[in-house]
């Protein structure tokens, strides 16, 4: 199938099947079940599976690399890298409204020293914080001194924290050795094209070696450097994730080609994200009225790339200073003033003990799902449908409908429950919306789902959801998501088969604009 | 003989600072400023002013007409 090792065969001695690797990570279990791509993987239940130990160690508690881990572990970003060396049409560097947040946007810039202190403070408060990322708000590698100084400080005081960084890739080849030297084991490269003609529509210019290059020339430079950087990283055994922004009409079809190009160079994971674009962001795309994709368009593209490679569907496109589990942002608790005033004691043992408990939870969750899945064995049906889940993490249905800032979406079929994405519904920065409107927004966001699983829901929204054709399900409050979804699906199939209800397909849904942040 | 930064447009991103061959750029109250005594418009160093080339906001690093154009000493 897909060999992870570099194309040229200059691999570090191990050839890994990416499909199986991701299968094992996503499913976190043993034989015979179909997961994401329908590929089976054999291995020890609820564990490492077929993963080589060194890769498993890298991904098992990284919320961005493992869909399953993102329910349990938290990450934080520190904004130490304000400068950038390219210009993207979906980014307006001037825009930093305290009320709004988008990926890459921050309200506070930190020095490396402040950042290191912040990391320690957060890690002591949130023991499941395992990953520190530097993602901006500019390009970390356009600020190499600040980025690497931060890594250096953290590696010395908190050696158990994984370091990662996100880059546009322009100067990546120059820094690969430093990155490897810091034991950075995950790098994300944003690659939106491999064709400079398309690139010219996304990047007005790049600044390289003291010169600004525009149009096709600039885009050619960028793509060459990105792919070279990717190859150099995978040759050194550093895991690479590729982010792509899906821009309908510009690179949407082309991303299949991007997917192939990055896969062949050893990328570990491909994360296709919807374009975030609104006129008030003041970006070029915002002003030209370039729209983002709908939920269905995004899913269709992700599905079409999935056979090729493993897709990440849980990206929240968080801010460059996000703190917490994916889908939550606790950055307001850790402002510079508060941190500088904090007495921080870094306690490695408490963190370890906590993380061990988390591992137990994970194993229990997977076992429950396996058990439920076996009851589906023998069921034959072509029905495939989506359900939304209100959760606060730990893989449980544990959020009140009215409190949910996002819903996780699972695709159900006789193959089981597969996580396919999330829908944001927080009304952040929209101001002045009443109850009625917020419910409408939620319904639009999960309009493609047949049911929504919640810990609790009030009478009014319940009736409105039903009227919209979405079944509000409270029966599985505080139970495991996948197990419950499978049980519900089984009952659904029974009712369809007995003629009690008729299965009808649902429409499309809207993708909420803006990055996730804590509500004001 | 210098460029200046239009403060109201500057995002404070700091991209220009390390690019200046004359160390003429520094931070002041969240935005960046050019020391006109140090700026040589990059003449003798690069083909174009580096601050202008790297700045993400158009028309932010511009020629300061308060000064005569820089004359390189030959
Ligand atoms: S931006 Fe995406 S990749 Fe980075 S932490 Fe957030 S979810 Fe993970
Ligand atoms: S024009 Fe050149 S010398 Fe003058 S401030 Fe800009 S980078 Fe420095
Ligand atoms: S590059 Fe432009 S926006 Fe950034 S600090 Fe310099 S003048 Fe300001």
TrEMBL record, chain A:
Superkingdom in the source lineage: Bacteria
Pathway entry: Cofactor biosynthesis; Fe-Mo cofactor biosynthesis
GO molecular function, one term: lyase activity
Gene3D superfamilies in alphabetical order: Aldolase class I, Dinitrogenase iron-molybdenum cofactor biosynthesis domain
Cofactor: [4Fe-4S] cluster
Occurrences of domain Radical SAM core (ranges): 70-319
SUPFAM superfamilies recorded: Nitrogenase accessory factor-like, Radical SAM enzymes
Presence of the UniProt keyword Signal in the record: no
Keyword entries, A-Z: 4Fe-4S, Iron, Iron-sulfur, Lyase, Metal-binding, Nitrogen fixation, S-adenosyl-L-methionine
Pfam families recorded: Nitro_FeMo-Co, Radical_SAM
Matches recorded under PANTHER family: FEMO COFACTOR BIOSYNTHESIS PROTEIN NIFB, FEMO COFACTOR BIOSYNTHESIS PROTEIN NIFB-RELATED
Homology family: Belongs to the radical SAM superfamily. NifB family.
Function: Involved in the biosynthesis of the iron-molybdenum cofactor (FeMo-co or M-cluster) found in the dinitrogenase enzyme of the nitrogenase complex in nitrogen-fixing microorganisms. NifB catalyzes the crucial step of radical SAM-dependent carbide insertion that occurs concomitant with the insertion of a 9th sulfur and the rearrangement/coupling of two [4Fe-4S] clusters into a [8Fe-9S-C] cluster, the precursor to the M-cluster.
NCBIfam families xref list: nifB (TIGR01290)
Protein name, entry field: FeMo cofactor biosynthesis protein NifB
Organism for this UniProt entry: Aquabacter spiritensis
Taxonomic lineage: Bacteria, Pseudomonadati, Pseudomonadota, Alphaproteobacteria, Hyphomicrobiales
Automatic annotation (TrEMBL), chain B:
Keyword Cell membrane on entry: no
Domain of life, per lineage: Bacteria
Gene Ontology molecular functions: 4 iron, 4 sulfur cluster binding; metal ion binding
InterPro entries registered for this protein in UniProt: 4Fe4S_Fe-S-bd, 4Fe4S_Fe_S_CS, YfhL-like
Residues in 4Fe-4S ferredoxin-type domain copies: 1-30
Pfam families membership: Fer4
Cofactor(s) named in the record: [4Fe-4S] cluster
SUPFAM superfamilies: 4Fe-4S ferredoxins
Keywords for the protein's UniProt record, in alphabetical order: 4Fe-4S, Electron transport, Iron, Iron-sulfur, Metal-binding, Transport
Official protein name in the record: 4Fe-4S binding protein
